[in-house]
Amino acid sequence: MKKGPAFSLPSEHFPAFLRAIDGSDRPKAVLVDELFKQFKHLPGVLSLRKGAIDSKLSEVATKEKKVWKVKRDAWASIGRITGSPPH
User: Fold this and answer.
1) Domain boundaries along the sequence of the chain
2) CA distance 43 to 33
């Protein structure tokens, strides 16, 4: 099985990444492009690829009724137990 591109966003930026996803009503391709533009120039980001963002988006969120919702376990991975934090 072929593995997708590695996701290389430093952990300190991961909470902002999740907040940028949660509640978005953008189509996946548009959201991936926006996330790429938002995070590619941050300190510590050496090599962020759209394919890796696409894979990570599928891993951490689902689209419910045209709105992206971050999965509970993704919030838990950053110390949030329930639901999304305020934006």
Assistant:
1) 12-76
2) 19
Phi-psi region of 83 (alpha: psi -120 to 50; beta: other; left: phi over 0): left
For tokens 């997708």, name the residue. Answer: 4
For the chain, give the percent of residues with pLDDT over 70.
86
One-character DSSP codes across 34-73: HHHHHHTTSTT-----HHHHHHHHHHHEEEETTEEEE-HH
pLDDT tens, position by position, 4-50: 567 778 889 999 999 999 999 999 999 999 999 999 888 888 788 89
Amino acid residing at 11: S
Q: Is the pLDDT of residue 1 over 50?
A: no
Give the separation between CA 67 and CA 62, rounded to whole angstroms: 8
Q: Which residues are registered as beta bridge partners of 68?
A: 63
